[in-house]
Design a protein that fits this description.
alpha/beta; six-stranded mixed sheet
C-alpha cells in the first residue's frame, strides 16, 4: 500500500529535500530516513539541504519576492485557491501519508489536510480584504491613511505533530500578503513536506511563480542559520518552549520578528454543575487523540471534589474501551507515539510521577508490540507535583481536585504555559467568571468543549511560555506585513501638527 501511495504523491525511495526555483537534484546535507512509527518500517529517505543549498534557495526567494509582491493580492489569491484545489484532489493520499509518517488515525490525517484546504479558502478571501484605515488629520487639506506592505522572504519552521497544517497556516497567508517563504519541516516528517512541495509546484508552474514556496529540510544548524539570516524579516516557529526561547534569543539580537507557537500544558475544569457525559467525551478526545501529541492536548483535569472519584472511575472505564492499534485501520482511536525518544520521555515521566507521589490509576506502561505504542494513562495527582507543571508529549492525564472555582482557575493558570483551557459547567456565573479578566490566562478559553480541535477561523496561539504568537483567523495576516502610515498634503500651505510654528 505505502509504495503505491508514495508514487502517487511523487515520492521515490530516495528524495531531494531541497527545492527553490527548481529541485536541487543532489543536496549536500545528511540523509534522513522516514520510519512508520506504527511498525518501525522505513518508508523512504530524504536528502537534507546544505548551507550552499540554502543560499541557492534563498537567492531564488529574494529574486521572486521582487516580482511577487507587485502582483495584485487577488491574483496571488488565485494561486492559493488553485493550491487548495490541488490539495483537495490529493486529500486521501496525503492524509494517509500523514497517518503513516506521524501515526495519526485516518480521520485525523485527512482532517489535517482538510485544514490546509480550509486555510487556502480563508486566505483567498483575505486577498481582497487586506484593509488599511483612513485617518482624520488635524491639518487642513491633508489626508492620512495606513497601508500594509509585504515583508519579504518568511522563514517557517514546523513540528512533527502537524507536519503540513502548520505550514499552510503560515504559507497561505504569507503568500497572499505578497511574501515568499522558506519552509524547514521537522526531520521526523520529511515525506509529507516533500509531497506537499510537489503538489504546490504543479500550481506554481501554471502561474510562473516558482520560488514563492520553497523547501529546505535540515537539522538544528540549518534552523539557526535561518533565524540568524538578516534577509528573513519574520521567523514563524512551532515547537517546544526550549526551542522557542532559542529562536527568540537569536532573532531578538537582530531585532527580527518572531511568531512563536510553543508548548501547552492545557487544563479543563469540570464543575459540579457540568454535563458529565459531555465532559467525559471531551476529555477522551482531548487527552487521547493523536496519542497526546497535540500542543492543545489535555494534560490536567481539574475536578470538583464532589464529583472527583465518580468521574475518575468513569474515565478509567472509558479508557479501557479505547481501541489502540495501527492507525490506518478502521475503528482505531489511538495510534503510536512518533519515535523511540517519545516513548522514553513517556517512561521517564511515569517514573517521576511515582517518585513524586502520584497514583497511576490506569495505564503507565509501554505496550509490548512492534511500533512506539504506550498505554493512555490516568494519574491522581496534586497540583504542587513538579511533573504537573511540565508538558509531556504523550497521553498522560493528571486528575486534580478543587473545592472553589477560584482555586480551580488558580490551578489552571499556575503553569508556565498558556495555550488552551476549558471549563465544563451549566452555571453561567461560573463560565463567565472563567472567561473574565480574572479567569483563564490562556490564548484559547473554551466553554463546554475540549481544549483541542481549534478551527481556522479563530486566531490560534497562547500566552506566557507558549510564545504569544497568533496564526490563522482574525487579523493574523498583519503578522506577515508591515504597516505604513501615509500623509498627503493636497493644499497649498504647510501647517504642522500640534500647532508647531516654524516660519522661515
Amino acid at each position: 500500500m505505502s509504495q503505491n501511495l508514495l508514487q502517487n504523491l511523487g515520492l521515490q525511495a530516495h528524495n531531494s529535500g531541497a527545492c527553490g526555483v527548481d529541485w536541487i537534484a543532489s543536496p549536500g546535507g545528511q540523509t534522513v530516513e522516514s520510519y512508520n512509527p506504527a511498525n518501525e518500517v522505513m518508508m523512504a529517505s530524504v536528502q537534507s539541504g546544505s548551507a550552499e543549498d540554502y543560499e541557492q534557495i534563498m537567492s531564488g526567494a529574494i529574486a521572486r519576492f521582487d516580482e511577487w509582491r507587485m502582483r495584485p493580492a487577488p491574483v496571488r489569491g488565485e494561486v492559493v485557491r488553485q493550491i487548495g484545489e490541488a490539495l483537495r484532489a490529493k486529500k486521501h493520499e496525503l492524509g494517509m501519508l500523514v497517518t503513516l509518517e506521524v501515526g495519526k488515525i485516518k480521520s485525523e490525517g485527512e482532517g489535517e489536510v482538510q485544514e490546509m484546504i480550509d486555510m487556502c479558502d480563508f486566505a483567498v478571501g483575505l486577498s481582497r480584504q487586506l484593509y488599511g484605515l483612513t485617518i482624520a488629520s488635524e491639518r487642513p487639506r491633508h489626508r492620512m491613511f495606513e497601508q500594509w506592505q509585504p515583508l519579504g522572504p518568511i522563514g517557517i519552521i514546523s513540528a512533527f505533530n502537524f507536519p503540513v497544517a502548520v505550514w499552510a497556516w503560515n504559507a497561505m497567508l504569507a503568500a497572499v500578503c505578497g511574501n515568499t517563504m522558506i519552509w524547514k519541516p521537522s526531520p521526523q516528517t520529511p515525506l509529507t513536506a516533500v509531497a506537499v512541495q510537489h503538489i504546490v509546484n504543479e500550481v506554481a508552474d501554471r502561474h510562473d511563480c516558482r520560488g514563492v514556496f520553497n523547501l529546505c529540510l535540515g537539522d538544528v544548524e540549518l534552523g539557526e542559520r535561518m533565524v540568524n539570516d538578516p534577509r528573513i524579516p519574520l521567523i514563524s516557529a512551532t515547537g517546544s518552549c526550549r526551542m522557542g526561547r532559542r529562536v527568540a534569543e537569536l532573532a531578538g539580537k537582530r531585532l527580527a520578528r518572531t511568531l512563536l507557537e510553543l508548548g501547552g500544558n492545557n487544563a479543563m475544569i469540570v464543575s459540579q454543575h457540568a454535563d458529565q457525559d459531555l465532559a467525559l467525551r471531551a476529555v477522551l478526545f482531548a487527552a487521547v487523540g493523536t496519542a497526546g501529541q497535540r500542543c492543545t492536548s489535555l494534560r490536567r483535569l481539574i475536578l470538583h471534589d464532589s464529583i472527583y472519584d465518580g468521574f475518575v472511575d468513569k474515565l478509567k472505564n472509558a479508557y479501557g474501551s479505547i481501541p489502540i492499534g495501527e492507525p490506518w485501520n478502521d475503528g482505531v482511536l489511538m495510534g503510536p507515539l512518533v519515535n523511540t525518544q517519545a516513548v522514553n520521555t513517556y517512561e521517564q515521566a511515569i517514573a517521576s510521577i511515582r517518585e513524586q507521589g502520584g497514583e497511576i490509576v490506569r495505564g503507565g506502561d509501554r505496550i509490548d508490540r512492534p511500533g512506539h505504542y504506550v498505554e493512555p494513562t490516568i494519574v491522581k495527582a496534586a497540583s504542587d507535583m513538579p511533573i504537573v507543571c511540565e508538558e509531556t508529549f504523550a497521553p498522560i492525564l493528571y486528575c486534580l481536585k478543587y473545592s472553589k472555582l477560584e482555586e480551580a482557575i488558580a490551578m489552571d493558570n499556575a503553569v508556565p504555559q498558556g495555550l488552551s483551557s476549558a471549563i465544563f459547567s451549566q452555571d453561567i456565573g461560573e463560565t463567565e467568571r472563567f472567561l473574565s479578566a480574572a479567569g483563564s490566562d490562556c490564548g484559547i478559553a473554551n466553554v463546554n468543549i475540549g481544549t483541542s480541535g481549534a478551527e481556522i477561523g479563530g486566531a490560534f496561539g497562547g500566552e506566557k511560555q507558549t510564545g504569544g504568537g497568533r496564526e490563522s483567523g482574525s487579523d493574523a495576516w498583519k503578522a506577515y506585513m508591515r504597516r505604513q502610515t501615509c500623509t498627503i498634503n493636497w493644499g497649498g500651505e504647510l501647517p504642522l501638527a500640534q500647532g508647531v510654528k516654524f516660519d522661515v
